[in-house]
């Protein structure tokens, strides 16, 4: 890898907030303009650094939610009430504010739009963020690779990207979206409510013989459980890429 590329990723970049909008009662998308942005691949993340007036500084990782394109980068942050950084990003940050970030980071958990293999995306909670970047990139680049997003969330009130997902569902037969509600479902929801188990996962995914590229993202427990289920079902470990949204930061 070229030295300039590595140094570029390690460099803190100045960004400015263009817009913010709520995705749920506790999650917000922050739209940034990063003039020095070199571009990214869907699945990559950035580190965001906050610095207080007294010089205290802290940083956290956030996946990129947007498809690559120009200098615009979108992040979606789930607020943790007792958190240090996520309440600031979801409650305080306003359009026009500056922000520091570095990246894009990560070369493994990425989907390339040239890939033709079926892509099986499985998300738990805010783990949908980098997978949404893959869905958006597929559409933006006109990819015809079959893609399925299995999105597990607690209930309708925690569902991120609701309107966009509704719009996309049914728009393209090669893109399938399946929601798994773990605690409560909308009225009239026909499917079972509960955690994604082996039977449900097998019913919603491709058989291993189709050799899908599997991407799993979410809290550590979710990721480990789904990755193990996929392996039990016969998917090759080398075809399963995972991203754990554990605590991050300095
Ligand atoms: C590669 C990567 C990508 C990430 N992408 C996203 C993203 O797109 N959107 C997003 O909202 N978050 C994402 N995260 C999580 C994010 O980095 C922070 O950990 C999260 O925002 C909490 O930071 P905080 O400062 O608010 O909480 P902290 O002050 O760090 O922690 C407060 C409390 O919450 C616990 N905690 C911290 N982080 C988590 C977590 N992720 N899950 C459960 N408990 C936690 C801590 O142990 C502590 O008890 C990502 C993490 C990684 C490693």
Please provide a written account of the structure.
- By secondary structure, this protein is an alpha/beta fold.
- It is 22% helix and 32% strand.
- The chain has six helices and eleven strands.
- It has a six-stranded antiparallel beta sheet.
- Helix 3 links the parallel strand 7 and strand 8.
- The longest helix is centred in the middle third of the chain and has 13 residues.
- It is globular, with a radius of gyration of 18 Å.
- The protein starts with a helix and ends in a 6-residue tail after the last strand.
- The model has no long low-confidence stretch (mean pLDDT 94).
- The structure holds flavin-adenine dinucleotide.
- Flavin-adenine dinucleotide binds next to strand 4 and strand 5.
Notable characteristics:
250 residues; alpha/beta; six-stranded antiparallel sheet; five-stranded parallel sheet; 6 helices; 11 strands; globular
Topology:
Layout: H1 3-10, E1 13-24, E2 27-33, E3 45-51, E4 57-63, E5 72-78, H2 86-92, E6 98-105, E7 119-124, H3 128-140, E8 147-153, H4 162-168, E9 175-181, H5 198-204, E10 213-218, H6 220-232, E11 240-244
The chain binds flavin-adenine dinucleotide.
Residues 45, 60-63, 76-78, 80, 82-86, 126, 129, 219, 243, 245-249 line the site of flavin-adenine dinucleotide.
């Amino acid at each position: 890898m070229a030295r300039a590329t590595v140094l570029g990723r390690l460099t803190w970049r100045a960004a400015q907030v263009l817009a913010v909008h709520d995705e749920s009662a506790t999650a917000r998308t922050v739209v940034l303009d990063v003039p020095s942005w070199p571009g990214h691949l869907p699945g990559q993340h950035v580190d965001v650094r906050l610095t207080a007036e007294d010089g205290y500084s802290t940083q956290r990782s956030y996946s990129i939610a947007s498809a690559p394109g120009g200098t615009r980068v979108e992040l979606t942050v789930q607020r943790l009430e007792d958190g240090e950084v996520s309440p600031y990003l979801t409650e305080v940050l306003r359009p026009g504010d500056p922000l520091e970030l570095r990246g894009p980071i990560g070369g493994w958990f990425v989907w390339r739009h040239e890939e033709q293999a079926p892509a099986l995306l499985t998300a738990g909670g805010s783990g949908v963020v980098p997978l949404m970047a893959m869905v958006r990139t597929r559409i933006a680049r006109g990819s015809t690779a079959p893609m399925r997003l299995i999105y597990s969330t607690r209930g309708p009130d925690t569902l991120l990207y609701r309107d966009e997902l509704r719009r996309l569902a049914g728009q393209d037969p090669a893109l399938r979206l399946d929601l798994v509600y773990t605690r409560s479902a909308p009225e009239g929801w026909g499917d079972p409510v509960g955690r994604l188990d082996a039977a449900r996962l097998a019913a919603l995914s491709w058989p291993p013989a189709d050799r899908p590229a599997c991407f799993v993202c979410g809290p550590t427990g979710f990721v480990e459980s789904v990755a193990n289920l996929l392996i039990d079902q016969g998917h090759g470990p080398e075809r399963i890429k995972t991203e754990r949204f554990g605590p991050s930061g300095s």
